[in-house]
Amino acid sequence: MSFAKPSLKGRALRLLSGREYSRAELERKLSSFEEEPGTLARALDELQAKGFIDEQRVIESIVHRRAAKLGAARIKQEMQGKGLDPVAVNEALAGLQATECERALEVWRKKFGEPPVDAQAAAKQMRFLASRGFGGDVIRRIVDAGSDD
Q: For residue 99, what is the enclosing H or E element?
């Protein structure tokens, strides 16, 4: 039994059935399957017109999945890597900035749970939070508050 190879639109829909993708991501993933120039752009235009590709949904999905574990800087980097509109990214991040300290505190509690005993332990905790994309002032506040308790 022989199966015909899937069309570009079929491949895009298969990818979109798993999670939200930006148009730029789909272009990168599907460009190697394009046989005639312009067919990929037409297929993606069609999917975008029908609402299958929506950058706002991609942004909401990333924020929903990543906000509990990552800081605004790391989420911004991820969104920029997906080729999303910078204005929409900045609008989404404005809401995350308000909860940055609470989210960082929760991440710190899950990983460490107790204040640093010396400068080396404090530096380790700070590096961990920085690698998660939290800002320097938030990191200092969390680690200093942990050592004051």
A: none
Cα distance between residue 87 and residue 59, in whole Å: 11
Collect contacts of 18-21 with beta carbons under 8 A, ≥24 apart. Answer: 19/61, 20/54, 20/57, 20/58, 20/61, 21/53, 21/58, 21/82
Return the closest-CA partner of residue 82 out of 40, 31, 23, 42: 23
pTM here is 0.81
Q: What is the pLDDT of residues 71-80, one digit of tens each?
A: 999 999 999 9
Distance from C-alpha of 56 to C-alpha of 66, rounded to nearest angstrom: 15
Q: CA 116, CA 88: separation in Å to the nearest integer?
A: 38
Q: Rounded to an integer, what distance in angstroms lies between the CA atom of residue 36 and that of residue 50?
A: 23
